[in-house]
Amino acid sequence: MSQIIVGNANATTARRYVVLVSGRGSNLSAILAASKPEQCAAVISNRADAGALEIARTQGIATAVVPHQDYATRNLFDSALADVVARYTPDLVVMAGFMRILGEQFINRFEGHTINIHPSLLPAFPGVRTHARALEAGVRTHGCTVHLVTSELDAGPIIAQTSVPVLAGDDVAALSARVLVEEHRLYPRVVQDWLAGKLDQRLRELAVREC
Ligand code: GRF
Fold first, then answer.
1. pLDDT tens column, 82-110
2. For residue 187, what is the domain's CATH number?
3. What is the pLDDT averaged over residues 75-81?
4. Is the minimum distance from the CB of 182 to ligand 1 under 6 angstroms?
5. What are phi and psi of 68, to 5 degrees?
6. Is the residue at 90 inside a domain?
7. In this structure, which residue's CA is closest to atom 5 in ligand 1?
8. What pLDDT is stored for residue 127 in this prediction?
9. Best of 117, 118, 120, 154 for a ligand 1 pocket test (most atoms within 8 Å of beta carbon)
10. Which of 139, 107, 111, 104 lies closest to 125, judged by CA?
11. Contacts made by residues 152-157, CB under 8 angstroms, sequence distance 24+
């Protein structure tokens, strides 16, 4: 699905992404800071009050809201969200703090083109409260993972990870802040590598391994 950018004498083919958000948008900011303006097609949220939408607006990026509570079932929401995403014909769907589990109505349309960042070294600590659970488990190393999104929660093929040490005296705030610094380095790099086609070989390998 590549997008032809027109309206320019030197029309080029550029890969573009859409970002799904629900919250403050610190990963969105980091991704945008590493992007060319034309690479981000839209920022889409299930929450009208997401801080991330304001970040997008101030940078002149198209935004859309698909409020999950307006849909009677998860399937209906997934399908409405997929329709809105498809309008922007993205090559890549980037989940950045999007707090809804996406079902097959969405995944089937964008599988292999949807990535998520998760604040743990998957497969350790899928789901929520990752930093608290890492501290409770007494692990010495924690971190973040970018993975392909599949219908199984936080279980898709791993694209990239960064680890951080767990230090004596760490609490959830200290540990999550250390991980977040690495998220802001890792996620923009993966997005840019994807758009530049540098991950194509890795994605082919992951697809083979999944079969
Ligand atoms: C990040 O910790 C990310 O790993 C998780 O949700 C959080 C989103 O934070 N999936 P932000 O909205 O990007 O600041």
1. 999 999 999 999 999 999 999 999 999 99
2. 3.40.50.170
3. 97
4. no
5. -65, -30
6. yes
7. 97
8. 96
9. 117
10. 139
11. 153/101, 153/126, 153/127, 154/116, 154/118, 154/122, 154/126, 154/127, 155/122, 155/123, 155/126, 156/116, 157/206, 157/207, 157/209, 157/210
Q: Is residue 10 part of a domain?
A: no
Residue 164 three-state SS: strand
Instruction: Classify residue 6: in a domain, yes or no.
Output: no
- From 183, 184, 190, give the residue whose CB has the most ligand 1 atoms within 8 Å, as the site to mutate: 183
Task: Decide if 80 is inside a domain.
Answer: yes
Ligand 1 nearest-atom number relative to CA 51: 12
HEC sequence for 172-183 = HHHHHHHHHHHH
Structural domain tally of the chain? 1
Q: Is the CB of 119 under 6 A from ligand 1?
A: yes
Tell me which residue range forms the domain holding 165: 17-210
Q: Report how far ligand 1's centroid is from the alpha carbon of 42 (Å).
A: 18
Q: Which two tokens stand for residue 157?
A: 């093929």
Instruction: State yes or no: is 118 an active-site residue.
Output: yes
Catalytic residue among 68, 113, 118, 184: 118
Q: Is 120 in the pocket of ligand 1 (CB under 6 A)?
A: no
pTM for the full predicted model: 0.92
Tell me, using a 6 A CB cutoff, whether residue 24 lines ligand 1. Answer: yes
Backbone angles phi and psi of 22, in degrees to 5? -130, -15
Phi-psi region of 197 (alpha: psi -120 to 50; beta: other; left: phi over 0): left
Question: CA–CA separation, 64 vs 87, rounded Å?
Answer: 11
Q: Are strands 17-21 and 40-45 parallel, antiparallel or unpaired?
A: parallel
